[in-house]
């Protein structure tokens, strides 16, 4: 399976990027690409879209299109999805009604130092992705106390089985979509 994992954080040492990288570690038999450069995307602008996709946008869109499944890892800022990730989703949702995410199986993960682990942002992101036609899995993983559980290269032992289960569900959903 070819997976694209998008980290919605731009911070060095990001817990969300660590969680995204852990996906690659736990899926060694899959082809996994981790994207963590969303700050390189220009702000979405309809006039720019009409002139043609900027190179950075084209690259992300092509990576999503080539993937069998997509994992999006979101931090939570003020109870919502960070602007840089929202901007990426805006670019991926175009053209209206024909998003590159349309009919793509997507798993949403989140991590936050707070007690809810970014669950509010993850829920909002699932809603948006569903509206643009993605096949969004309702399950996922929201890692609370991420500053403790993802503080170094060895994650908290509880995270690995929970993330493995979420990724197994993604793999099952992708195989079901391929067979359909």
Q: Topology, please?
A:
Elements: E1 2-7, H1 15-26, E2 31-35, H2 46-51, H3 55-66, E3 69-74, H4 83-92, E4 105-111, H5 119-131, E5 135-143, H6 146-149, H7 159-179
Parallel strand pairs: 1-2, 1-3, 3-4, 4-5
The percent range for helix content is 40-55%
Question: Which whole number gives the mean pLDDT?
Answer: 94
Give the distance, in angstroms, between the N- and C-terminal Cα atoms: 16 Å
Across the major sheet, the strand order is 2-1-3-4-5
Element-level helix/strand string: EHEHHEHEHEHH
Radius of gyration: 15 Å
Strand residue percentage: 15-25%
What is the CATH class? Answer: Alpha Beta
If you had to describe this structure to a student in words, what would you say it looks like?
With 180 residues, the protein is α/β, with parallel strands linked by helices. The protein has one domain (2-179): 3-Layer(aba) Sandwich (Rossmann fold). Helices cover 43% and strands 18% of the residues. It contains 7 helices and 5 strands, in the order E-H-E-H-H-E-H-E-H-E-H-H. The protein has helices at 15-26, 46-51, 55-66, 83-92, 119-131, 146-149, 159-179, and strands spanning 2-7, 31-35, 69-74, 105-111, 135-143. A 5-stranded parallel sheet has the order 2-1-3-4-5, with helices on both faces. Strand 3, helix 4 (83-92) and strand 4 (105-111) form a beta-alpha-beta unit. The mean pLDDT is 94.
């Amino acid at each position: 399976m070819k997976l694209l994992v998008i980290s919605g954080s731009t911070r060095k040492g990001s817990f969300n990027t660590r969680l995204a990288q852990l996906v690659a570690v736990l899926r060694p038999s899959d082809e996994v690409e981790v994207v963590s450069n969303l700050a390189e995307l220009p702000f979405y602008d309809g006039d720019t879209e009409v002139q043609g996709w900027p190179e950075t946008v084209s690259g992300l869109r092509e990576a999503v299109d080539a993937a069998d499944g997509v994992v999006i890892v979101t931090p939570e800022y003020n109870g919502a999805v960070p602007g840089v990730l929202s901007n990426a989703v805006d670019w991926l949702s175009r053209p209206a009604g024909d998003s590159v995410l349309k009919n793509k199986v997507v798993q949403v993960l989140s991590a936050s130092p707070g007690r809810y682990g970014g669950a509010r942002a993850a829920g909002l992101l699932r809603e948006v992705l569903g509206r643009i036609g993605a096949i969004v899995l309702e399950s996922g993983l929201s890692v609370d106390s991420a500053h403790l559980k993802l503080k170094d290269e060895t994650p908290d032992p509880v995270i690995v089985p929970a993330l493995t289960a979420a990724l197994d569900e993604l793999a099952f959903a992708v195989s079901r979509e391929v067979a359909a």
